[in-house]
Amino acid sequence: MNDFKGNIALSNTTVSATNAALVALRERIDALDTQMLALLNERARCAEEVAHTKLAEDPKAKFYRPEREAQILTRMQSLNQGPLRHEQITHLFREIIASCLALEESMRIAYLGPEGTFTQEATFKHFGLNVATQPVDSIPQVFREVEAGRVRYGVVPIENSTEGVITHTLDMFMQSGLRICGEISLRIHQNLMCRHANWQSVQKVYSHAQSLAQCRYWLDKNLPQAERIPVSSNAEAARLASLDDTAAAIGSRQAAPIYGLQIMQDSIEDNPNNTTRFLVIGDQVVSPSGNDRTSLLVSTRNRPGSLYHLLKPLAENGVDMTRIESRPSRTTNWEYSFFLDVRGHEQDAAIGGALEALRQEAEVVRVLGSYPVAVM
Ligand SMILES: O=C(O)C(=O)C[C@]1(C(=O)O)C=C[C@@H](O)C=C1
């Protein structure tokens, strides 16, 4: 007997017993919600007091404390015993913290737009859904908005696990004095969207070049006839697809409702672990969280063994390097700047020692920021 027939066969007594159980459970949920409401507001009042305490100590105090947020989220994950998953707990607590932070200060965040990009998704993931945002046209423009003080922080992409580093962002650090205050790690799910259900017949697929590259094999297999047209952003791709029945777009789920499209196929990225890392940029020095990363910009003259001389101080001080990128220096031909990521905080003795030795070797050594490693 299937469920449907089973339900029909239930006697009146069973139905009322089921109803009674439901009523009791809902009463329990209502009682728990009442407790949570009181607790949430108590927490919010604490955050308001934190704001007063910070201001009393320093009238220019920063309210956003990424290291504290990372500690709270990590602690909640370690305490969590389910059935809610770590990811859901993290998401809920992020929203709670964001709402408390909004009571302390109303902030505006610039991000690489337009609306519907993965950078927007990363911004909301980190700062909560209710933060005021300012989508801008380019990575340099995000830096300019923060430098001019028109927004408090900016969010820019830095690297993708499939397609590698975003050189535009690295290059901006050569000109800008802004610091990295945080990082956001976002699992990138690419979606195929168009105006109608007949997606297999489309002749064009618009997307950002990186997204097209991330779906290369899926497109070869499922839409071999369609021309792949790279455009400035996934949101622009969605806009173009919204004007044309013979076209589809690939991009973030967020873009579909904004441009009146339907998601026809989801998670079409070739690599199931496709992740993009974003940076939060601002003018803030962030305290240690206990699980930090430090980004360095080091420039040196090109002489034999120069890279070896840069890396030796790190190795000798036991500093764990997680990334190195080289970029041609903008000022002199054949001089290189290196972007290094190391584990730890600039206040750690090991990194302090390595920096001191590095400064003997290199022309320029700049700490771009020490910040908490992204929590989920
Ligand atoms: O602990 C602080 O400094 C706070 O401002 C409180 C709080 C929170 O809600 O827990 C809010 C915002 C900060 O970014 C970090 C934490």
Automatic annotation (TrEMBL):
<comment type="pathway">
    <text>Amino-acid biosynthesis; L-phenylalanine biosynthesis; phenylpyruvate from prephenate: step 1/1.</text>
</comment>
<dbReference type="GO" id="GO:0004664">
    <property type="term" value="F:prephenate dehydratase activity"/>
</dbReference>
<dbReference type="InterPro" id="IPR008242">
    <property type="entry name" value="Chor_mutase/pphenate_deHydtase"/>
</dbReference>
<dbReference type="InterPro" id="IPR045865">
    <property type="entry name" value="ACT-like_dom_sf"/>
</dbReference>
<feature type="domain" description="Chorismate mutase">
    <location>
        <begin position="16"/>
        <end position="108"/>
    </location>
</feature>
<keyword id="KW-0963">Cytoplasm</keyword>
<feature type="domain" description="ACT">
    <location>
        <begin position="295"/>
        <end position="372"/>
    </location>
</feature>
<keyword id="KW-0511">Multifunctional enzyme</keyword>
<keyword id="KW-0413">Isomerase</keyword>
<keyword id="KW-0028">Amino-acid biosynthesis</keyword>
<dbReference type="InterPro" id="IPR010957">
    <property type="entry name" value="G/b/e-P-prot_chorismate_mutase"/>
</dbReference>
<dbReference type="InterPro" id="IPR002912">
    <property type="entry name" value="ACT_dom"/>
</dbReference>
<dbReference type="InterPro" id="IPR036263">
    <property type="entry name" value="Chorismate_II_sf"/>
</dbReference>
<keyword id="KW-0584">Phenylalanine biosynthesis</keyword>
<keyword id="KW-0057">Aromatic amino acid biosynthesis</keyword>
<dbReference type="Pfam" id="PF01817">
    <property type="entry name" value="CM_2"/>
</dbReference>
<dbReference type="InterPro" id="IPR002701">
    <property type="entry name" value="CM_II_prokaryot"/>
</dbReference>
<comment type="pathway">
    <text>Metabolic intermediate biosynthesis; prephenate biosynthesis; prephenate from chorismate: step 1/1.</text>
</comment>
<keyword id="KW-0456">Lyase</keyword>
<protein>
    <recommendedName>
        <fullName>Bifunctional chorismate mutase/prephenate dehydratase</fullName>
        <ecNumber>4.2.1.51</ecNumber>
        <ecNumber>5.4.99.5</ecNumber>
    </recommendedName>
</protein>
<dbReference type="InterPro" id="IPR018528">
    <property type="entry name" value="Preph_deHydtase_CS"/>
</dbReference>
<dbReference type="InterPro" id="IPR036979">
    <property type="entry name" value="CM_dom_sf"/>
</dbReference>
<feature type="domain" description="Prephenate dehydratase">
    <location>
        <begin position="108"/>
        <end position="283"/>
    </location>
</feature>
<comment type="function">
    <text>Catalyzes the Claisen rearrangement of chorismate to prephenate and the decarboxylation/dehydration of prephenate to phenylpyruvate.</text>
</comment>
<dbReference type="InterPro" id="IPR001086">
    <property type="entry name" value="Preph_deHydtase"/>
</dbReference>
<dbReference type="Pfam" id="PF01842">
    <property type="entry name" value="ACT"/>
</dbReference>
<dbReference type="Pfam" id="PF00800">
    <property type="entry name" value="PDT"/>
</dbReference>
